Amino acid sequence: EHNCSYFKHFTPGQSSEIFEVTTQKEYSISAAAIAIFSVGFAIIGTICVLLSFRKKRDYLLKPASMFYTFAGLCIIISVEVMRQSVKRMIDSEETVWIEYSYSWSFACACASFVLLFICGIALLLIALPRFPQNPWETCMDAEPEH
What we know:
The chain is mainly alpha-helical.
């Protein structure tokens, strides 16, 4: 069985020998499955938002906000699982790593977590009913927004 998720690096000094070090396959599969859940949550959230704007069904904005928040949480969990897999590979005794850095895709995944999480919370705050303006007014007595 061939595993395509490996990292190549050169040894320091005169030797130009290439070592191929692989991450654990279980971590990669887990991270991919969690990322697919994230995509599913984002798609369901988008469908809820589109249905709420099209038919004036404001009650669909609350589930949409939760789906976006769950999508962001799934992304950060997936990123952390992959980060732990790479960290475990780097800490192995087979190779010595002088330095390593994360690529642009790590930054994009973290930015998408922040964007989805903050937008999900903001959408939830927008979808909440209007608070009473006066202390003697209850939420049921408030005038409807639409």
